[in-house]
Prior knowledge:
By secondary structure, the chain is an alpha+beta fold. It contains six helices and seven strands. Strand 3 (115-120) and strand 4 form a beta hairpin. Helix 3 (32-39) runs antiparallel to helix 5 (70-104) and helix 4 (43-64) runs antiparallel to helix 5 (70-104). The mean pLDDT is 82.
Amino acid sequence: ARDEEEAIDHEEEARQRLDRGERLIWSGQPIASRAMRKGFLIYPFAIAWTSFSIFWVLMATIATRGSGDHETQIMAYLFPLFGTPFIIIGFVMLLAPFMTRAKAKNIVYAITDKRAIVLDTEKAGKLASYPYSDWHKEVVTKENKDGSGSILFGRHRYQRPHKRGMKQFIGHRGFEFVKDVSRVDSRLRRALSDYKARAQVGE
Length: 203
């Protein structure tokens, strides 16, 4: 209930981005708590990383402090500085679930009679548009036990480090962590089917 109270008016946000003559079929937002839960997957690594970074800085400080040697005294101040970026990275990873939750509350999903839309209202209305005319792959729907889930349809290329340098991968984007995903999936597939039917008759 709290998420619903804090959520923005997704229908109004979606309508403001429609082209002339375009019809809004559905709009919604990610479930913020679900998005947050995904962010906790990195916690075991984040806790280990942050703990070791803090331990390393403390041990380096203790080992180099108290010596009368001038060079050692300089290192006593430099060593903590070397470890500080790693501590910062650790805290960023620990904050990731909460940042993901906050971001989810600014995301708007929409289905129209011409395309699917993913809108980030926080980033000056950044909009990702997926016209049905470009859809050549099957829609992939993943449903959880509580009826929520994700619908993936947009393809994008990205690179990751590999044994022999950088390797290119293909990922999918779409509507993540939506309520009643089967109903949303049905509306999306109907909109896509209707669009293709109109295209065949040359409307």
